[in-house]
Every structure is written in structure tokens, then in C-alpha cells.
Amino acid sequence: MLDLLFDFIGMTGTTLVVGAFFLLQLEKIASKDLSYNLMNLAGAILLMISLCYNFNLASFVIEIFWIGASLVGLAKSLKRDDDVNPMTD
Question: What is the DSSP letter of 1?
Fold first, then answer.
């Protein structure tokens, strides 16, 4: 039963990462979009969780980099939004 749970978590993560890539290729979202970076971040985190149960070093390392890259993209996206819509006092 636990195997099934972690497989489901991993497959959900895979769906998010691959889905984000397909949406990017179909030009439905841009790489600078908040949604693209959130999908990649959430997917990578879910894959990392599944890897804690079925560990694979190479996959674990790539997910660390995927999370890092997603966080950089997310920070840039949020900064861009702040620059476009600065809060006024």
C-alpha cells in the first residue's frame, strides 16, 4: 500500500514537470510565467518525496537542481511582478 502511495506522489510530480514542459512547447505558458515555475517546483518536490522512499542518487541530485532552478525562476518572476506593480504608500 505504501508503494502505491509513493508511486502516486511520484507520478503526480512527473505529470506536473512534463505538463509544464508541454505547455511551454505549445506556447500556452512562457518560461517566465509564475505558473510554469510553480508547476516545476511542485513537481520536483513531489518527485523528491517519492525518491525518499525509492532512492536513486542520480534522480535525487537532478531534482535538487530542478528545485534550485525553479526557485530562481520563481524569485525572478515575483521580482518582475513587483517591478511592474510596485506598492504605493
Answer: -
